[in-house]
Amino acid sequence: MSKRLIKIAVGLLAGVSVNAVVIAQDMGEVVVQAQRVVKKTIGHTASGVPIEDISLSYGVSTKGLDLSSSAGAAELQKRVASAAQAACKELSRQYPSSTTTDAECVKGATDKAMVKVNEMIAAAKKSGK
């Protein structure tokens, strides 16, 4: 892979990640980001740093959920867990030589997203919505 192509790919991935976070904040979504570590180096940045960590982000909508209720909170947690499983399964399919197991991937993605989920639930309960 040429250095130019790697720069473009890294730039696109960074742009997509930033856009996903901005959209998530505006639309009441939680971003679930699954990550895998690939055994082989897939390229290098312009400064020579190897590119080995692969991630995939899914947005999880809170539309139609009353997060102040137990049922609404449980449904959002279920959606986040499903998104984490789907993202990790896709990464596993695309990068079968990764060193991260499916269980580690799902746990990491779910744990990160649940921080935001818990904040959203607490805010909803505090405001009564």
Features:
129 residues; alpha+beta; two-stranded antiparallel sheet; elongated; disordered N terminus
What's the layout of helices and strands?
Blueprint: H1 3-27, E1 29-37, E2 53-61, H2 70-94, H3 102-127
Antiparallel strand pairs: 1-2
Order of secondary-structure elements = HEEHH
Number of strands: 2
Count of helical stretches: 3
Structural class call reads alpha+beta
Largest beta sheet: strand ordering: 1-2
Domain module tally: 1
Detailed description of the structure:
With 129 residues, the chain is α+β, with helices and mostly antiparallel strands. It has one domain. The protein has three helices and two strands, in the order αββαα. A two-stranded antiparallel ribbon has the order 1-2. The radius of gyration is 17 Å and the shape is elongated.
Short description:
This protein has 129 residues and is of the alpha+beta class. Helix content is 59%, strand content 14%. The protein has one domain (3-127).
